Amino acid sequence: MRTARIYQRPKNAMQSGRARTDQWLLELEALTAQQADPLTGWNGGSETTNQVRLAFPTLEAATAHAEREGYAYHVVPAPAKKLKLQAYADNFR
Questions:
Q1: Residue 6, Cα to own-chain centre: how many angstroms?
Q2: Which residues of 13-25 are buried (b: 16+ CB within 10 A; e: fewer)?
Q3: Tally of domains in the chain
Q4: Which residue range(s) make up the domain with 33?
């Protein structure tokens, strides 16, 4: 049985915006471990399903898709948003 991981897209650390952070992603976990290529030394394998990410607008839509396809799934909870409230005057204290 395939196992899927459902999680909410994190905020991009390189930008200040929060675009697409409300989406939920479904990723299939690999059935076999990656192996080192003897020629190049890079990790890889013949399985390509772990490269597929499906985006859903809600958690319920993502879990419904996993159940419909017969995947066992686990939901990774979204991290709590931390607000750093700061005043401009704090720069001069």
A1: 7
A2: eeeeeeeeeeebb
A3: 1
A4: 3-92
Encode pLDDT of 38-53 as tens digits: 999 898 888 888 889 9
CATH code for position 9: 3.30.160.190
pTM value surpassing 0.85 = no
Output the 3-class SS for the chain. Answer: CCEEEEEECCCCCCCCCCCCCCCEEEEECCCCCCEECCCCCCEECCCCHHHCEEEECCHHHHHHHHHHHCCEEEECCCCCCCCCCCCHHHHHC
Residues in Cβ contact with 89 at an 8 Å cutoff, skipping those fewer than 6 apart: none
